[in-house]
Design goal:
mainly alpha; 9 helices
Length: 161
């Protein structure tokens, strides 16, 4: 069986489901050796694998490298990186990712905003979580139960309930 980007991406994704972030990173090395082109799906799978392996900093590093090297990415990759940081309450890094994404004139979605709000809530930054909720409304991004619950929880934790 000949390796291609699709099959390696599938293997990376499988590693992520089993918290095999180290194996996922090794597979990226295999892609480079075989001169296979990585894509947004590759990076999303790797970032998710790092997130599930509690290696959010590795995922953030990959996202930052993508942005600095002007590698194309999509909202799914952005959401994977936001989610990785959200799990550890790295709200400042999440806001930085949102800024980078907006600079690229990419649309943020319900997941982007809800995860970012959750990171702010976990970091005790209820006002920033509420600002993001208001931005969601202004940008006409659909709100759902998760986004409303995060906004309410952030206010409650901030004593603004």
């Amino acid at each position: 069986v000949e390796l291609d980007t699709f099959s390696v991406n599938a293997a990376i994704s499988a590693c992520g489901k089993g918290a095999g972030w180290e194996q996922a990173l090794r597979l990226v090395g295999v892609m480079a050796q075989k001169m296979l082109q990585s894509n947004a799906t590759t990076f999303s799978a790797i970032i998710n694998a790092c997130d599930r392996g509690s290696q959010w900093d590795q995922g953030l590093l990959l996202f930052t490298e993508m942005a600095q090297n002007k590698i194309e990415y999509d909202t799914i990759v952005c959401n994977a990186a936001i989610s990785a940081c959200e799990q550890s309450g790295e709200w400042e890094k999440v806001l930085q990712m949102l800024r980078l994404t907006k600079q690229r004139e990419m649309d943020l979605d319900t997941i982007s905003y809800s995860s970012a709000m959750s990171a702010c809530e976990k970091g005790g930054e209820w006002e920033k979580a509420l600002q993001l909720f208001c931005e969601m409304v202004q940008s006409r991004v659909d709100r759902n139960t998760v986004s409303f619950n995060v906004a309410i929880s952030a206010c409650e934790k901030g004593g603004e309930w």
